[in-house]
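hey so u asked for the seq, here:
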Amino acid sequence: MKLYGDVNSGNCYKIKLVASLLDIDLAWVNVDVLAGETRTEAFLAKNPVGKIPLLELDDGRHLSESNAIVNYLARGSALEPADSYLYAKVLQLQFFEQYGHEPYIAGARFIARYLGLPEARKAEYEAKQEGGHKALAVMEEQLARTPYLVGETLSVADIALYGYTHVAHEGGFELSGYPAIGQWLERVASHPKYVPMG
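ran it, structure tokens below
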């Protein structure tokens, strides 16, 4: 299988991490978003939405949206709870990640890291801080009660939220005030099959 992505994207990194944890071989195809490579005719033929990550299956079919790809790769593995309620909690956290976490933390990081925090985007960057800290507080509350986001074991919910949380400082989010998140980050990174971003 091929993964079209950017090595510094948290959404792409989630897939790289899941593949490593599950010993799945993926051929990486680097895509430069800022150079417009997701808007080419060839790329849009694979994904009309014009976004990465994009997984190309061995049979030529394509799958987009990071959490959909993560769930596809993790299907039937230990990263996917068998219990229906816990699986629904995983999905709940993945939806939270895309709508209550990623827009703020990844958005601020994009403005700072990819764009160099231009003056014209500074107000937008600062506006994302409140929403990002609100998301981190939700995570902190849960992780103060359980070692992982859905209880006692690592799941795709953790992978979904780890992707951008572990680089949140690059978007201006100081994590020292979130001790449970700090311990969780160390827990995820200590997995024997862990691979770093990049």
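The chain has two domains: 2-74, 84-189. The mean pLDDT is 97.
lmk if thats what u needed
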